[in-house]
Write a structure and sequence with these properties.
alpha+beta, 60s Ribosomal Protein L30, Chain: A, CofE-like fold, 2 domains, three-stranded antiparallel sheet, 6 helices, F420-0_gamma-glut_ligase-dom, potassium, GTP-binding, Coenzyme F420-0:L-glutamate ligase, plasmid
């Protein structure tokens, strides 16, 4: 069994804040601290905030293509422009829905651009995903190791909707240390049958468990420690979770 411990007493983050050092210092103080084998799950929101990924919609130059797509989806043209800039492909565009393939490879609503829990700043702003969430996770792991002597696994999480299912759940968009996917294909099940398709989305499952503690609304708990999960350090990243576009059966 495993336990989930929220990391409390974190500040509101702003562009330029040294998030890895702040997290490492907080964990060095204990409660929950860090133990060997821990996984630190950090929300995309505080990573993006600290990396200065906030954009004022009033500053966005809107292309004709974005205006056309905004009319089609009934969305703010400036928001649609930012979605297009962050995306490599438009997957679905209907009234009130815009699904794209993000430049990082994730298929998601509005390219992961979010406007919730950004504070009151007098003008409408949105928050983009980090430039490189895997690198962000690695920097946090390095800072924790330097400060505490323990290198945790680090997962950057974000909330995703799922095709054919209602609601959102947290998934991993950045991974440093833990396996992203555990491949059980070719191994026997408990009856001796060889498994053909079983691949466990370990990092997504860990992010989902952490999300139950961190919440999705006003909770203000943007990081937590998972303790007791068995795993081995490796070199997988969040890209190991991405299904190749050629295997997309729904387009």
């Amino acid at each position: 069994m495993f336990s989930v411990f929220p990391v409390g007493d974190l500040p509101e983050f702003h562009g330029g804040d040294d998030l890895p050092s702040i997290l490492a210092d907080r964990l060095a103080q204990g409660d929950p601290g860090l133990a060997p084998g821990d996984i630190l799950v950090v929300t995309q929101k505080i990573v993006s905030k600290s990396e200065g990924r906030m954009v004022a919609l009033s500053s966005v130059n809107i292309s004709d293509g974005a205006r056309d797509l905004a009319r089609q989806t009934h969305k703010d043209p400036a928001l649609v422009e930012m979605v297009l800039r962050e995306s490599s492909d438009v997957v679905r565009a209907v009234p009130n829905v815009l699904i794209t393939r993000h430049r990082l490879g994730h298929v998601m609503a509005n390219a992961g651009i979010d406007a919730s829990n950004l504070g009151t700043c007098g003008e409408e702003k949105v928050l983009l995903l980090p430039e490189d969430p895997d690198a962000s996770a690695a920097r946090i792991a390095d800072a924790c190791h330097a400060r505490t002597g323990i290198r945790p696994g680090v997962i950057i999480s974000d909330s995703f909707g799922r095709p054919w299912r209602i609601g959102t759940t947290n998934v991993a968009i950045g991974v440093a240390g833990p396996p992203a996917v555990i491949d059980e294909r070719g191994k026997p099940d408990r009856d001796g049958r060889i498994m053909q398709v079983t691949q466990i989305a370990f990092a997504d499952a860990a992010a989902g468990a952490a999300g139950l503690a961190m919440g999705e609304g006003p909770e203000g708990l943007p990081a937590c420690v998972l303790r007791g999960l068995p795993w081995q350090h490796g070199d997988q990243t969040s890209r190991n979770l991405l299904r190749p576009a050629g295997e997309d059966l729904f387009r």
